[in-house]
Amino acid sequence: MSILGFSGVLVLTVSLTSTLLAADSRPDILQIITKNDATTILGEAIKEPSGRSGEGADGYYSKCNYYTVRRAKSLVVRLQLPAPNAIPPQAELDLIGAANGAMEKVTGIGDVAQMLVTAGDSGFASRVLMLYVVKGNAFLTIGLGGFADDAIALEKAKTIAQKVIERL
Known about the structure:
alpha+beta, seven-stranded antiparallel sheet
């Protein structure tokens, strides 16, 4: 075999390895926001988190749900890296705003961020802050439930968002 032939095989091997490493390096929410992180964020013991990551028809998703043992608080984190033919992150944010009404702009995180706070009739346990963040081609959703103080919930959500964005 000639050196040129051997070089071609080597390049192919390096190319395949690089492709595999790139696929494995996609953000995994459960690896970014650990059980310990969620315990600190929610301020009490949590159940085992339930996370999932993978490719779908419209792109890559990674998500994880964290619930406190006493069921008083929750944290939900979703990350979407859309495929080229999927709805772009800004359009997704616009659709959420159209469906839910006016959202409040949030500064200091991502390219564009907006939040929505909902409160049920049963008290603060049903109060939920949703933070939606567009960063490049990524769409991040963070939901925090059970916090009576929206400012505290927003700061926690922004901290989570920043930690995820750093891994994009």
